[in-house]
Amino acid sequence: MLVGAPLGQNLQPGTNRSGALFKCPVAEADCTQVETDGRRPSDDYDDESSVSTGLNPPGKDEIKDGQWLGVNVIWRICTRDLHEPCKGRPSEKAHEQFGVCQAGTSLALLDDGTALIGSPGPYTWRGTLFVQTIVGKYLDRDRSVYLGPLADTPEPIDKYSYLGMSVTGGKFFNKTLKTYAAGAPRSHHHGQIFFFNKLSSDKPMNIVLIIDGEQFGSSFGYEILSADLNNDGYDDLIVGAPFYFGKDQGGAAYIYYNLRNCRTDTPCEHKVLYGSLESRFGFSMTALGDINKDGYIDVAIGAPYEGGGSIYIYLGGKDGLNLKPSQKLKAVPDIIKTFGYSLSGGLDMDGNGYPDLLVGAYSEDMILLYKTRPIIDIDITINSNELKHLNTSKPGCEADPHSNSTCFSFYSCFSISSAEGNTDKLNVSVKSKIIAETFDGYKQFSRVWFKENTTDLYSSFVEHWYPKKCQQDTVYVFEGIRDILSPIKFQVTYELVENTTGSPILNQSSVKVFEASFQKDCGDDDICQSNLILSATLPQLTVLADNEDLFVLNLGEIEEIMLQVNVSNFGESAYETELYINHSKSLSYIALDKGGGIQCTTIQSTMVNCSLGNPLPSYKNLSLILRFEYKEGTDDQGELHFYAFVNSTSKELSTQTSANLTASVKKQAEVHIEGYSTGHVVFGGEIKGEAAMEHYEDIGKRVLHSYYITNEGPWHVENLTVIIHWPWQVANDKPQGKWLLYLEEMPIIEGGECFAYPSYAINPLNLTGKIDGIGNTAESQIMPLRYPNMPDYNFTPASIPPPLTRRKRDAEFVVTPKEIIASDGKKRKIVVMDCNLNTAKCIEIRCSVSKLNKRTSTTIMLISRIWNSTLVEDYNHVDWVSIISRAQIQLADKSIEQDITNDYTQVETIAYPEIRQQEDAGINILIIIGAVLAGILLLVILIVILWKLGFFKRNRVNDPTLSGNLTRQSENETPLLGH
Description:
The chain is mainly beta.
């Protein structure tokens, strides 16, 4: 075992904590340091000191202190060589070039002889990845050193990204071409994974894919691991984010399958494993190889700060990594800390054919080797010629011919096998147990007893030294039993006795059930030849496409699913006739609805067994109806399956003993939304400023909008969301507009909850309602009136301004009226306040309902005030103002089929000015014209009378002085109208 100690004291003289490499034999308790530095070649002329056989101090061109030798250790048998990928590259600008290279921070050796060297330091810690072939003949192999892009422009890799903290390679996109991956845990502050392909040797490698982390500061890409977890021929990728944090989570590991389907501009599909709080789960990872011999690679993931440290073992499979750990290794409390800080797996250290796991705990200067225990199978066989045709009238048996009771004997044998094929070296002790009838609820009392202990249970202990071991057991039948038709069932169980460290474990429970049957009346030859015919159907469901075995199930239409099975026997008596029904996991058996006294039981979770008779007589017809219920949330792939088959211990002549039914599962839920509102309101009166508002009643009339959501079924809907766009301000080109519909409170919903975005849009002025003398609000509740649905619209959420104080100039904007021809044929000037027309500013309100069952509904009530002053000030000259809110339904379950044309609606409130109402009730135009003419005529008559009386004639005094003054005034002054 090779262990790196990056802060260790090296054997080379003249160095201080430059790092060291230790070798640790498995058979010994301590490690020794490997000489890694100080033996300079004789042709090194940089150091003029003589070369001795001992270790020399560093040369003049070497800086060893703090070099972190051993920060990463990998091994392969090859010739000695020293790779310095940054040597000879530009370093005049120090850390802005290759001055701080930090090559070797991460390493990987691929199976094709390619070495990957992570170097997070170059170019201000952008980091890069060096790729070089190190295996093969020197003259034949590719000797070029490839590296990732480091140019300032274009700049896919930012400064301080630390690319190269982790490296790996694999067949991610092509089964024959390898791609190289490197983690950049600080890129964009959340971490990224970069994938590279080789180009020519004089050009940087090409970036083919970038995967982004999800959380700020999670160090996504601190550790990465590639392996084909599902044996599809493509390598998968596991990415550690040890600093991920959640409410009860600390650290995460992201699993990416099918990377060939990923694109940089869209998130890759993945699964996530989470660790416990502050555990740094994902800090270390390793591929274990196949530890359970199922043909799939297994993985270990470290959480070094979960207590003293923990390691989680995950098993691979056809669907990838099992998200539930199969095993958890924990540090010894209060003794070991940082257990799992580093991991190395995949190598068989003890030669038992199973890969082992090496664990590092750096704070204790300790490594621990976990050896995988061998996995074995126990194969059980039962041999006897006395298990058939028991005759209770005949005492004794071959093993005990003088017994007064009927008896029989059998041999129970077991053999041990291993996936490795070698069991000779396994020292195994086996404990066996045989139970007669009283297991798994088969019978309460047994009809037999064992010779050794006169009970229905017999146990023994056997040490296994040979490929196969057998033991004979003799069983006696109690006298006077009445049930001689049903078989006597036995269960034999073998268990391993763990008597030594590292002893094998069983792959699965080693249990076998067998039976002994009584003599039957089947004619002279005692051979019953039955002819069983089975047919099955789903009577409640619709047959699909003229195929009597294909059906359609609309979930919710029926409470229970009925399976009708018909069994007929057209041959001789069928003994121990059993009906088995294998069904999908999403179904649960309830009971037998019709069966004529037949009992059915559940075997495991997907099998139902019905005993049809012992015997089932000739020409007997049975019709059974079994009831099942559908369990939501299970993986049924959109189909339900029933496989029914019948058998017996008789010789079967028929080939029609089974039926296979399939039902296509559909989720249909017709959900629609309707809108209601206050029919109309009237605005008028004085104009009040925002500061004058103390109560809701000061704003204006109350306006109610209601949305009625109904699920007609037949299936229920979960996690339903209603998105409402609410016109709270008049639109303008400023952050704030004039108030329009002012919400008094958060919308009210039955069986759910609502949230506004932004939340301060709900009663932002903190107003209250007026209270009368008996504690009620002064204004009575206005019941909403039904308003017909309006045409469908495309919803585009308006931008929400920040909660700033509204300035007057922000509100100085008036929506331009438009003329329409009303139903009475007259031209009307109206204003429409609608977010879709950009005439209103809307907030978004999201109301969620956790579950809406079929034929149920829920209502969302929005209580608001129309801002009277806004309409009086700016829209008193129009015939009416139309204010529109909109709502849309969203279903979380996309598999539900429904009509989406009624998932949208809008509600309109019409506001009329008071002055317009007066004009509408005005006087006839002829009366107005007549009154004007009469007034003019009266004025003319009055002028004539006054003229006749001399009213317009004035007599002045003949005063020259006055006349002169008047003349001068007229000459020197200009009339006011001249200006």
